[in-house]
Amino acid sequence: MEVLIILLIWFVAPLVEMGFIIGLSVQNSRYKKRIEELERQAEQQNINAGRGDRMPGGMCQPSGPPKAWGGRGSGWARAM
């Protein structure tokens, strides 16, 4: 009886593992599509706002913390 259970687990485990891999692959592709959609929306918002200041890698130029926080180089960043 023990041998039968061990053989059953031995043959079923790879199929379950393959099912998990396929499920994670499908979920990953959905997340990638969502990220691409959000990137397109952000790009469209940048174009509509007249801010075409993009770096070669596709990233926005860093603007630093808001002036209400004291701007760049203020004490709030050095205190942390």
Q: Strand share of the residues?
A: under 5%
Provide the structure class. mainly alpha
Overall average pLDDT: 78
Tertiary shape: rod-shaped
Q: Into which percent range does the helicity of residues fall?
A: 55-70%
Give unreliable regions as ranges.
Answer: none
Gap between N and C termini: 63 Å
Cα-based radius of gyration, to the nearest Å: 25 Å
User: How many runs of DSSP E, i.e. beta strands?
Assistant: 0
Helix/strand order: HH
Count of helical stretches: 2
Instruction: Describe the sheet with the most strands.
Output: none
Kindly describe this structure.
64% of the residues lie in helices and 0% in strands. The chain has 80 residues and is mostly helical. The termini are far apart. The model has no long low-confidence stretch (mean pLDDT 78).
Sum this structure up briefly.
The chain has 80 residues and is an all-alpha fold. 64% of the residues lie in helices and 0% in strands.
Comma- or semicolon-separated keywords:
80 residues
Question: Would you spell out the secondary-structure blueprint of this structure?
Answer:
Elements: H1 2-48, H2 75-78
